[in-house]
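Chapter summary example.
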Amino acid sequence: MDPAFLDASRFRICFVCTGNICRSPMASAVLRRLADEHGVADRVLVTSAGVSDYHVGETADERTIAALERAGYPASDHRAKHFTRKWFDRFDLVIALDRGQERVLRQLARDDEARSKVRLLMAFESDPPTLDVPDPYYSEPETFDAVLQQIESACRRLFRQIHPVLAASRRG
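The structure predicted for these 172 residues follows.
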């Protein structure tokens, strides 16, 4: 883990899916771009991880990379990581991509403070059709584009909620 994530002066977010090769790398790329576009990239640290260690050290799935590149996001530097209990101390917000990961994260949390950091990405949408971002892993490449669009929408709403805090910390 990058030592920068120990810097409590920055707002630290980790997106979590199953293996950290499809959905969570998409979400971290989207949120990083939003922070950059709004001039607060220096106030937030964004990464991603998986609840499983199946793919640790691997790049994102080639279909994830292709979907991100088609949408204009950088995608080549991702390496899969495994979310562990000690990571709760390093993050202000831990965002699960579906309810399965949310359950695992809440069980992994050692106390109520850690559990309070766990949120579902789709819960930031005003009226989501589901709380789960579908896992595109066993799907066609086109599904990755649709999943990315869903993630982009939810990340924009998430960003609207955290932007005032990030902007205020920049002035202060």
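To summarize the output: The beta strands are 11-17, 44-50, 93-96, 118-120.
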